[in-house]
Each structure stands twice: as structure tokens, then as C-alpha cells.
Amino acid sequence: MAAANPQDMAAMANMPAMPPPPGVTPDLTNPYSREHQYIIVASIAIALLAVFVSLRTYAKVWIMRSPGIDDVVLFIAMFSKVASTLLEQVILFTKLTLFMLLYRIFSPNKVAKYMILAGISFCIVFYTIMMFLFIFEESNTKLLHVNYTVGAFNVISDLYILAIPIYAVSMLQLATRKKIGIMAIFLTGIL
Known about the structure:
Blueprint: H1 6-13, H2 35-63, H3 69-82, H4 87-106, H5 110-136, H6 140-170, H7 176-187
């Protein structure tokens, strides 16, 4: 197939691919956008995030007097979200916050401790690689595969994070009914 000349290429660039559906008048100079709706929803979500993180920080610092590294990582995750940095970075810091919270609770259990440390290590490596792929990859097809990979890993790592407290609670010397109650509290993370 012969290459098209520049005039034909310019004409094709300005030509619609197909006519619009019946009853639709195209407006290419001022197309429909949901930008304002997104800004409103994102602003409300960030305000709620700030309120809940502030309440958690107040409770941990002033009431319980036991702040931890998970609080610092939570602030990094929140500011990453507010600054609208790469999604992988926000997800990484959010998952690190959860892992560190679980570490504070379940570190006496050696198996749970090693599960948490393995999860932290794997998440750091995975999300760092994905972040660089998003920054430097130019092919849309490859970026689509990266998105699918990140989505699959998110589901698997979320289930892994839920499995750690279930395992640790099942090893406690408690009545079965109490174990189920404690597990149910941790399983609210599914919501």
C-alpha cells in the first residue's frame, strides 16, 4: 500500500470517522464534559478523607498517645492523593499503611509478621515497577496491559491483606464464637 501524500493526510485528520447517531448534533468546538462533576465529587471525597485522617490522627496522638509509622505513611498517602500524583504511588502508600497497621497488631505472631513483611516488600517492588512503566511507556496497547496487571494485583493484594488478620485471629486461644466475631470485624474491609 502506497503512503498517502501530506494533503490527503491533512484532509483525513479533519474528516469524521463516521456520521453521528440520529438526533445527535456534534459540537467539536465545545464538546460535552463531566469535568465540573468530577471536580465536585473529588473535592467532597478529599474533604472527607482529610476529616477522617485528622480524626484518626487526633485519636492516636492525643487520646491514645501511641502514634506509629503507619500514621506517617497514611499522611504520605493522603498528600499523594491530594497532589494527584500517580495512582500507583497512592495505592502503594495506602497498602503500606494497612500492612503497617496489621504489623502493629499481629507482629507477635511470627507467621503473620513474615506474611506482612513479604506483602510490604512485594507491594513496594510491584508498584515501583508499574509507576516507571506508566511514566516511560508510550504504547497505548502496552499501557492497557499494565492497567490490567495493576487491577489484577490490586484484587489479589487486597485479598492477601484480608487473609492476614483472619489467619492470625484463627491462631488465637479464644472461643470459636469470639474468633468469628473478631474475623467479622476485619472482614468489613471487603466493604
